[in-house]
Design brief:
This protein is α/β, with parallel strands linked by helices and 144 residues long. The chain has 3 helices and 8 strands; from the N terminus they run H-E-H-E-E-E-E-H-E-E-E. The strands form 2 sheets. The chain has a 4-stranded mixed β-sheet with strand order 1-4-3-2, covered by helices on one side.
């Protein structure tokens, strides 16, 4: 029997892992679906409905995804505080304009770390960021 080397294990792991998908627990699935699908433009591609209500779903936006699941017991405080995910985009300014046109509160874009960046907070306090590369000077704010 031939033993597997660390290099063999590393190669298998790199080839095996394909995507990271944030998994958010939410207090109100209907509000979260409205926010992500109607507000941010995600598409629900999978769902689990055990008792006539969606309790879990997979949401897709371009090549990016996230999952939502309803809490069994809703915590008293917002659970997403301090948690951020950043979607890398071709054009974060386009995302900003689309999301804002749907009535979702979203921060005015600015340039930081050579990226146009804008963000919004979901109903459970999770910070959702969209960023795209730019050569515009640092700390520039988007003017509408």
């Amino acid at each position: 029997m031939e033993l597997e080397t660390p290099v063999d294990r590393e190669t298998k792991s790199k080839n095996n892992v394909q995507q990271v998908v944030p998994f958010f627990r939410v207090s109100n699935m209907e509000n979260s679906i409205r926010y992500y699908v109607d507000g941010l433009g995600f598409e629900m591609t999978r769902k689990w409905i055990p008792k006539d209500k969606i309790e879990w779903c997979w949401l897709q936006l371009g090549d990016a995804a996230l999952m939502l699941q309803t809490f069994r017991k809703v915590p008293e405080q917002k659970v997403g505080v301090g948690v951020s995910i950043c979607f890398q985009c071709q054009d974060a300014l386009q995302i900003y304009r689309e999301v804002k046109s749907r009535g979702i509160e979203i921060a005015r874009p600015f340039v930081g770390n050579a990226l146009w960046t804008t963000s919004t907070i979901d109903p459970d306090g999770y910070r959702i960021e969209f960023a795209s590369p730019t050569d515009v000077p640092e700390e520039t704010e988007y003017a509408e």
